[in-house]
């Protein structure tokens, strides 16, 4: 519908008139710009708490716990420590809680404590092409900020790297400067190692819904079967989510980027940081799968000398390289940096926690999205037992557990690629007639060193075709397995029904034939059973072939 | 389900063994922290483009145009100028476009140009409690960033404040420093006033879907009936979205915060910035609805002297003030800072653009959420005509248009409170049997000086009960109006059907009676029609009462 409409002359005149009238009241640019100023990142997030996941009282509490637990798990994994994490939530008043989180991790070096907890966009993970839960250096400073703006209380940190010294620091954030404001600091001798965080939050509330801390920790335990998590809830109940394996996931390793999918801007940025002296060696050093032979191929499609200093690359030259990357075939990216949970581990956790009647687990082969970013998808479907989510009306609904790099995503399911993929599966085809109202738990873990989140709160995966397709393929695969199981189950039920009918009939038949023929009833019955056994391919013993008494109705 | 499980002894021993084994490989904290560093906000968003709305090729193009147009509309509104905005999109190659956007706004003072386009978190709007489309000082620098990382090309800005000098600047962003890198700057004499931006983007694509620039501008025009928007699409077609009013929306005015909903942290922050010398005058100056009498009331519930210097307020004292705020009754926040579009203006725009068979528009009274943030909801429902969205299969689906402060939200409908409210309405009750498949357009505009967005991309409103409720109430209201219209329409159709049946019957009857009685057939028919007219309360003339010929079937 094109809206090409010519302006009527009279209207034009009216506009001119109004314009003239309004011109007089017009404000000048310098007047409008008198308040122009810069704000700090902390100030930005203070005003936009919702971007960090602080919206809604339950969600805010879960977010804070998520930030702490995520940091603990990452630190332990990198330090090769079997994590033991304790979370205590105490209710101090209405919508007012204290959280204590403690790990047995590597501790934080004294000089970094204030930046870790009090400075946003500071961290160890941002520049590394490595699969970790955290990434941005925002999360834990966000907890300090939220604690401060709701209670005015500093964050209390106790940490030791195991060098015999324990550092205890209480700090706030300076919002305009984006840095920590140390309130108190203490050092004392002790042999302990680890990190303990204590903070107070208001405007939060605790419940046991699927958005609350209990569910968050339960799911964290499923996706991190090597972690022991102890949770003491506000009523003082202790919940132990024990580990089902003692094998620490392999250390995530840094991976060089793959040439496919590298943008011109990426190439230029990397070229600025390389220590290589020639573009040729820079390409081999900085990208994976870029052998001597590949550099030769690249050389043939660019019009400048690859002996050039990489720091002097122009946009046009980098563009030629990017185009050569696109044209040339490279080996697929290695998946060595990817750390899936693994089918065995997921299965153990699912069996222990959901005790399902049926389960199927699948870790797909690594794939790439957006040209060159490797990722991997793991899914599980559990049916029956404790699978699904009991609803208020007593029925069991289906339950979806989304994870990225083993971190549960409890919110923002709506726009998430994982949700889209799940909804896109035609579950009816796999004998799950009414997906919504079935006792089924669907588990999806997306593994990548770079997950494309939609927001700083990292709760929803942005639409990427390749990721959505992989999740769907994986679910269809486990769906087919369920269908097989289900039709086998159905066949067995049918077989059992036929068996029971035949047995009942043969008992009566044996009696009748025995009366007519005078032969031994038992012998006849046994012969009949032999026939039934053959026909139905029954594999049990003959003795078992007696009609079952009807189950008493409760 | 509690997972309190005691650890089995043998497992414990195994754990100890593994722990010992792994201890040897443990990494120390200082090793893990060797890469600890701070990154700039630009670097952060470079890596997390999706937070700014740059995910997906169509969406990225729409996002860039949105940022430019939003800035132009805000500037014109503040400067009291009737906006005339021109957007040209040219295709330069595959997924490679040039955008030119020009306004007749107040221009940008020379000294601020580089910060406006090259520095994130710099702007005029962040600290002001005022209803504007933009807010964060991120959007337009984000366009410079996206242009730079996809094409390496600088943003070109031409601007004049009407002082006879035109400044032309080409700039890039320095990613690590979060500041502009001027490539070229020119000043020349000219009488023009306004701002013109030109940039090149790759990895974007243009289409006419409901997520594309055309739809974005069409909806912008509906919600900004005072703006004239000229759009030249990549095929060179010119679309003019003309203004339907020449009245500029009232200047948004800054509003003082309302005491209800002010957190302790808010009070302390404001106390630091006040020029008042006493807490009592600070409270009256900085908050709305805080009269002398109210300050007296506050005085009675705190244990310190309100003559105190506000800069010396402690958390505990501010907490007492916050508690007093909670306890005391204040007048509801004034809505003077809220700038709804207005029922008349929405109606004009809806009639012009959708030409519906039925429309209902409602601007609700202002309300508050989260204690003290004023907001207002406007809705419209249009039915029939060009309402709804034609789908590929030829049928018409329902169409939802979400707006916040007149800005169309084209993405992330999933988690948005507005969407939730729309889905929550039981449309069947209002005679829209199958909402999804009805020719209906639902328009919702949420107006507030502080919209709680879920992400920096500002496309989705975070869950707030009060907002959701207001949207729902408003929709139910216009829903009832549709129902009334529809049942009247139905009654009229029924009446018409009965009328036609009676007329047909009376013609035959008149003939028969005439034959039997010998009386004049016309007289009898006329008498019969008189009776029908009375019974059906038909108000037309008698001549019109002739049976309609059946419509020919096409």
Task: Write structural notes for this entry.
- The structure is a homodimer of 554-residue chains.
- Chain A is α+β, with helices and mostly antiparallel strands and 554 residues long.
- Chain A has three domains: 44-241, Heat Shock Protein 90 (2-Layer Sandwich); 264-327, Helicase, Ruva Protein, domain 3; 343-485, Ribosomal Protein S5, domain 2.
- Chain A is 38% helix and 20% strand.
- Chain A is built from 15 helices and 18 strands.
- In chain A, the strands form three sheets. Chain A has an eight-stranded mixed sheet. In chain A, strands 11, 12, 13, 16, 17 and 18 form a six-stranded mixed sheet that branches. In chain A, strands 14-15 form a two-stranded antiparallel sheet.
- In chain A, helix 4 runs antiparallel to helix 6 (139-151) and helix 14 packs antiparallel against helix 15 (521-536).
- The longest helix of chain A is centred in the last third of the chain and has 53 residues, at 465-517.
- Residues 1-17 of chain A have low confidence and may be disordered.
At a glance:
The structure is a homodimer of 554-residue chains. Chain A has 554 residues and is an alpha+beta fold.
List the helices and strands and how they pair.
Two copies of one chain form a homodimer.
Chain A: H1 9-23, H2 29-32, E1 37-38, H3 41-47, H4 57-79, E2 84-93, E3 96-103, H5 113-118, E4 122-123, H6 139-151, E5 155-160, E6 165-174, E7 179-189, E8 194-202, H7 213-223, E9 228-232, E10 238-241, H8 264-273, H9 279-286, H10 292-301, H11 315-327, H12 343-354, E11 358-363, E12 367-369, E13 373-383, E14 389-390, E15 396-397, E16 399-404, E17 407-409, H13 417-424, E18 440-448, H14 465-517, H15 521-536
Parallel strand pairs in A: 2-9, 16-18
Antiparallel strand pairs in A: 2-3, 3-8, 5-6, 5-8, 6-7, 9-10, 11-13, 12-13, 13-18, 14-15, 16-17
Helix pairs in contact in A: 4-6, 8-11, 13-14, 14-15
């Amino acid at each position: 519908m094109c809206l090409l409409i010519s302006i009527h002359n009279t209207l034009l005149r009216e506009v001119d008139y109004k314009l003239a009238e309004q011109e007089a009241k017009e404000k000048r640019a310098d007047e409008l710009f008198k308040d122009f100023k810069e704000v700090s990142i902390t100030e930005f997030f203070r005003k936009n708490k919702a971007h960090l996941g602080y919206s809604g009282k339950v969600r805010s509490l879960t977010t804070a716990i998520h930030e702490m637990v995520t940091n603990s798990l990452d630190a332990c994994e990198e330090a090769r420590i079997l994590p033991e994490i304790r979370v205590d939530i105490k209710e101090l008043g209405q919508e007012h809680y204290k959280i204590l989180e403690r790990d047995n991790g590597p501790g934080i070096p004294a000089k970094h404590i204030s930046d870790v907890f009090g400075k946003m966009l500071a961290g160890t993970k941002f520049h590394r092409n490595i699969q970790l839960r955290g990434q941005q250096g925002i999360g834990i400073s966000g907890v300090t900020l939220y604690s401060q703006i709701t209670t005015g209380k500093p964050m209390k940190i106790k940490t030791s790297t195991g060098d015999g010294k324990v550092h205890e620091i209480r700090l706030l954030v300076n919002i305009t400067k984006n840095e920590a404001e140390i309130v108190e600091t203490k050092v004392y001798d002790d042999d302990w190692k680890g990190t303990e965080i204590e903070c107070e939050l208001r405007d939060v509330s605790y419940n046991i819904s699927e958005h609350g801390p209990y569910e968050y920790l339960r799911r964290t335990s499923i996706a991190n079967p090597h972690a022991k998590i102890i949770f003491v809830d506000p009523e003082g109940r202790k919940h132990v989510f024990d580990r089902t394996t003692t094998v620490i996931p392999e250390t995530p390793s840094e991976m060089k980027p793959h040439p496919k999918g590298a943008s011109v801007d990426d190439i230029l940025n990397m070229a600025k940081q390389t220590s290589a002296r020639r573009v040729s060696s820079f390409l081999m050093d900085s990208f994976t799968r870029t052998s001597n032979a590949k550099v030769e191929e690249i050389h043939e499609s660019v019009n400048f000398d690859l002996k050039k200093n990489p720091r002097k690359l122009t946009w046009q030259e980098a563009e030629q390289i990017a185009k050569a990357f696109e044209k040339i075939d490279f080996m697929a990216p290695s998946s060595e940096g990817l750390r899936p949970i693994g089918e065995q581990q997921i299965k153990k956790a699912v069996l222990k926690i959901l005790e399902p009647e049926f389960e199927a687990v699948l870790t797909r082969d690594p794939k790439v999205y957006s040209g060159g970013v490797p990722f991997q998808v793991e899914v599980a479907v559990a049916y029956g037992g404790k699978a699904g989510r009991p609803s208020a009306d007593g029925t069991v609904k289906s339950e979806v557990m989304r994870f990225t790099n083993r971190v549960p995503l409890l919110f923002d399911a709506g726009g998430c690629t994982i949700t889209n993929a799940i909804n896109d599966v035609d579950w009816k085809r796999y004998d799950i007639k009414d997906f919504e109202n079935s006792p089924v738990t669907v588990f999806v873990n997306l593994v990548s060193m770079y997950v494309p989140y939609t927001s700083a709160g990292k709760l929803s995966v942005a639409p990427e075709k390749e990721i959505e397709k992989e999740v769907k393929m994986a679910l269809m695969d486990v769906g087919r397995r369920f269908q097989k199981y289900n039709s086998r189950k159905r066949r067995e039920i049918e077989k059992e029904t036929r068996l029971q009918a035949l047995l009942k009939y043969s008992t009566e038949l044996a009696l009748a034939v025995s009366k007519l023929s005078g032969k031994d009833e038992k012998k006849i019955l046994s012969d009949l059973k032999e026939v039934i056994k053959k026909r139905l391919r029954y594999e049990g013993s003959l003795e078992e072939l007696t009609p079952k008494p009807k189950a008493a109705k409760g």
